[in-house]
Amino acid sequence: MKKVIACSAIATASLLLMQQCASPPPGMPEVAYGSLRITAMDTASIRSIFVDLDDVKYGRHPNPCVLVNLIVGVHKLLVYDDSNAVLSGTVEVLRDRRTEITVSLMAEGPYVGRIAPRFSVANIDDQSLSLDAMKGKVVLLAFFEHT
Prior knowledge:
Layout (H helix, E strand, L loop, with lengths): L1 H21 L10 E9 L6 E6 L2 E7 L2 E7 L1 E8 L4 E9 L4 E7 L1 E2 L12 E3 L5 E3 L17
Parallel strand pairs: 1-7
Antiparallel strand pairs: 1-4, 2-3, 2-5, 5-6, 6-8, 9-10
């Protein structure tokens, strides 16, 4: 009989704790939502797209698509299709509004056996560095994203 009473007391305490945790503390801002409409160009050839928002996979959607009930703020956006065309960037979702974004998907490498696309960048000494200037040399480019 003692075991049943103890389990009942633990279950009651757990329910009370869950009720207390479910409501936000006083003074916390209310969460606001908005929506995002994504159109991948060219709509004739791209019938569906995959969407990742803040590294969460939202799955396959028809092109164009609307994602609803997104938390307001700046989000990391990744849009891609079956042919590995990718667009990565950020998008701001506004409160109680539909944010519209049109993306042009570009095919990713690999560029093995092909001429690399023209590329130039400023180095840490603010001097221009381009692939054209390194023609005939072995060049390794490493791209990464800092979030």
